[in-house]
Amino acid sequence: MDLSRWRVAELRDFEEFDDKNEDAGAALKYAYESLPAPPVTYGALLASAAAAAAPDDGVDRISSLPDQILRNIVSRLPAKDAVRTGMLASRWRSLWRSVPLVFTDAGLLPECIKKPTWRPSFGDAFGINNAVNSILKTHLGPFRCLQITCCYMDMDRENIKKWMQLIADKGVQELAFINRPWPLDHPLPATLFSYTSLTSLHIGAWKFPNTAALPDAAAFPHLKELFLSVITMKDRDLAFLLGRSPILETLTIIASKTDVRISLVSHSLRCLQLGLSSLGDIAVADAPRLERLLLWMTQRRRTGGNHFSRIKIGNAPNLNMLGYCHLGQHELQIGDTIIEAGIKVSPSTIIASVRTLALEVHFEVRNEVKTVPSFLKCFPNIETLHIRSMKVDKPTGNVKLKFWQEACPVECVQHVKTLVIHEFKGSKNEHAFIKFIVERALVLEKMGLVLCPESFRCSETTLHTRMRPFLKINEKRGSKNFKAIRLKFPSTATPWSFRMGVDLSCTDPFDLDSAF
């Protein structure tokens, strides 16, 4: 099978992403961005080999290497390039059929390679369906990575079932299976739950099957990473997945079609990431290895009497990163205590392990601002503080520097080394908070203001007027290591990366704008 001859006659884009747009192209953009990066292409490999300055004597030294090494080389290539190696020499001709292969249907499209969130239209996807069908029938397996994200699943549902059965016999390690088109109208094939070799699973735009009808043996014993994007599922379905994934380390839910409710009991999970979803109660009941609880553009619950989403933290001794907590939509509960304005902090309400905290605050809404000191008191060891300044339609009052000085003892911010204000608008309330941090944070080293373009789309005179309060801010700074405030405009319209969020080697996923 020669995948290199496959071509597309015409290509058409989905419309660009818009946070207010709920169609498939908008919701699935984040799912495509979250896919693991494809391996190096064959062309890049050849360029790298040429750069190594091998002797120009015409001798084929690579083909003389042992079969094990040649298979290792081929297994690191995308399927399209792995097939092409058969043209190098007779020795390479059948190697690709017996190695752990990497196949991404997006890799067949130059447009997808240039723009990872682009996907073809219905007519263009027909050829991709044929290519997927061929590779699954031809290659014996295993697959190191298999990504099916461009196909139209409605073209031939019976064929999709055959694919799922073929995949079950291939020993797939990393699988991405994203359904198209929109809307959801048929459930995820139950065969998926027999894929015991999976270590990473991305599911997008599917309706969950009836888990009660699945066999008792259904499980993912080796699964470490799970992404669920634009999924219609019930609480029991999520509980089923968590219960059948004993070594799961990262769980991400993007754009859930129903309220997300979790009572987390896991001795393996290290990162829970929820985005673009409405939240019910999120309870971290017993998660001794949990390091990150990340929330991005979440909304309050759509059902139930209490419209606030309650984030309850029980046993999470290793939690070191929390946010964004939206003070107007989330209720934080630590143990049995709800954290609200004026609360008296006790040992039972302190989480000393958190080093990075991110809050979403309406600085012009006084009741929200009054809750911030309570949050800071509960996390006395934070070293990095991110504040996303939210837009306010109806301001309810000013909050001056005196409020912060009286409500926040110096212990609240004594360990803060880095402060970043996102969507900074230049308001007096923002200035008061920043001045407080500069005066009271005794080890402060860096401060960044990511400017809101709408607020600073003005004349140079207005810009200087809004920034004038910072001219004398260094006169009363509490930290000798703090020198200056860095200003910048956002580098992207959607400043969040779910892939970066689950990358535990990334020390600060909130700083996608690279404020420093």
Q: Could you tell me the mean pLDDT? A: 83
Rg over CA atoms = 26 Å
Largest sheet: 14 strands, parallel
List low-confidence stretches.
1-21
Cross-sheet strand order for the largest sheet: 1-2-3-4-5-6-8-10-12-15-16-17-18-19
Q: Count the E strands.
A: 19
**How many structural domains does the protein architecture include?**
2
DSSP strand (E) fraction? 15-25%
Shape: globular
Helix content: 10-25%
Helix and strand composition category:
alpha/beta
Number of helices: 14
Q: What's the end-to-end separation, in Å?
A: 49 Å
Can you walk me through this structure?
This protein has two domains: about 20-35 and about 65-255, no CATH class; about 260-515, no CATH class. The chain has about 525 residues and is an alpha/beta fold. Helix content is about 25%, strand content about 20%. The longest helix is centred in the first third of the chain and has 17 residues, at about 120-140. The chain is built from 14 helices and 19 strands. The strands form two sheets. The protein has a 14-stranded parallel sheet.
Summarize the structure.
By secondary structure, the protein is an alpha/beta fold.
Keywords:
five-stranded mixed β-sheet; 14-stranded parallel β-sheet; 14 helices; alpha/beta; 516 residues; 2 domains; 19 strands; disordered N terminus
Write the layout of secondary structure elements.
Blueprint: H1 24-33, H2 42-51, H3 67-75, H4 79-84, E1 101-104, H5 110-114, H6 122-138, E2 143-148, H7 157-168, E3 174-178, E4 200-204, E5 225-229, H8 235-243, E6 250-254, E7 260-265, E8 271-275, E9 279-286, E10 292-296, E11 309-315, E12 321-326, E13 330-334, E14 337-339, E15 356-361, H9 366-369, H10 372-378, E16 384-389, H11 401-407, E17 418-424, H12 428-440, E18 446-451, H13 460-467, E19 485-488, H14 498-501
Parallel strand pairs: 1-2, 2-3, 3-4, 4-5, 5-6, 6-8, 7-9, 8-10, 9-11, 10-12, 11-13, 12-15, 15-16, 16-17, 17-18, 18-19
Antiparallel strand pairs: 13-14
